[in-house]
What does this fold into?
Amino acid sequence: MLSVNNIVKQYAGHRALDDVSLTVEKGKIFGLLGPNGAGKTSLIRIITQITAPDSGEVIFNGQRLNSNHIAQIGYLPEERGLYKKMEIGEQVLYLARLKGLTTAEATKRVRYWFEKLEMGSWWNKKVEDLSKGMQQKVQFVATILHQPELIILDEPFSGFDPVNAEIIKNEILELNKQGATFIFSTHRMESVEELCDNIALIHRSKKILDGSVEEIRNNYRNQTYWLEYDGAFDTDIPSDIFEIHQQDHKEGKTKLKVQLREGKSANDMLAVLLPLVNIQRLDEVIPTMNDIFIEKVKTQN
It folds into this structure.
């Protein structure tokens, strides 16, 4: 659906994006990750045509990005963008009309979403009377109301309690199931693992990692396991098969975090241990996206 090709964006003495390219597949949830100041918001503003790149291009559904595409994109910014003194119902209707909906259709859709997200009593309230999380709910509805093909969410769970975060997460998954494509910018790595099919990591204006979440996690596997057993063997004796990084003892059981040495397998480790102890569990430690994020950013500093 979206191809970002060799984008460069310069602000005075700061290069916000340096030759960034990425591809967002139709019907997928794409995670746009990076530390504060990495360039994520600059890229989002180019895709939403708030700003233009200095060089490079964005292709949307096979066409160079242009003003006709604005109606096909929904954008939920991280910062609040609502009129504080305006009534909620009137404001969402106004934003829907800007996206091309008739008053009748906009009213029908607003009432549907307000009812679905338990916002029915908010119609005549003003934005300034709402909490941060309630304002975020209003902005989420305004973002998706015109049924855009591409929905861009910048820190969508900001301000939400766990219950409302779960409600919005489920709505994102449902909209995705119905065919919507998402770009999802967040610092919450657990949300990335729950929601995203693919990610790109931007750091210091450059893309330093991209691919499917599953492939990236598998690529960072390092032969580390949690091993739980009862019985005893001398963990102080060095092994040519594995190295022990951590050990805990509780209620007669021992839990070890071990890393296999190069060329060794879990079967090699079990062959040594099974005659000595009763193994209860063996779990491979697959790095989380948070682990990978931290490691990758640190190596680039």
User: Anything to note?
Assistant: The mean pLDDT is 90. The first strand starts at residue 2 and ends at 11. The chain has two domains: 2-218, 222-285.
